[in-house]
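Allow me, if you will, to draw on your knowledge of protein folds for a short while. I have a record of one protein: its chain in single-letter code and its fold written as discrete structure tokens. Kindly check, if you would, that the fold set down in the tokens agrees with what the sequence suggests. Thank you for your consideration; the sequence and its tokens are set out here:
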Amino acid sequence: DDFSWKKLSFCIVLTILVAQPMVLANRQGVASLVCKYKHIGNAKEIRVTLLKQTGDRFTEICASTYTMEFKMFSVEEVIQCHVSPSRNNVTLTLTGLQANDTGLYVCKMERMYPPPYFMNKGNGTHLYVIDPEPCPDTAIYLWVLGATASGFFLYSIITSAILMGKAIKRRRCLTTGVYVKMPSEKLEKKVIPFHITVN
């Protein structure tokens, strides 16, 4: 009876407890998912796998093994996975996410070395990916802006030409166009009126 109790307690200790957030929302195509774990023991090598659950099926998104040196690394897939391990958790930063990547993501942690091997999964995180709002078509705005600027430019040229034409006509009305030499004021003062004599 004492042997079965030791066996049961040994099984409980060899189970990794994996915890992860329930919901995670994302808008820019980047999401950080933290997978916490406990009871890893004297593990030197751990494998983390991110699975996407669809019904009863699991699809591997990214997986990698790391040592307890906690160095960051990246896994290049369709969804890029940047892994930042630390003492009690692993942060998986996913980039390249699109709206169709929305779903339930499960962290799977495995103790690889030294033996004995054991594994556990988290409860899953519902990841909601929202596509960014589409940018308005700037080509239409550029055409409208160009047409408006061209219209104002053409309007200013026509208005300037009309005003110049009116100014030139006004000057013509004031001048006769015949040049008459006028004596200067000094000469007018020196003019002696002439005397008409009658015979």
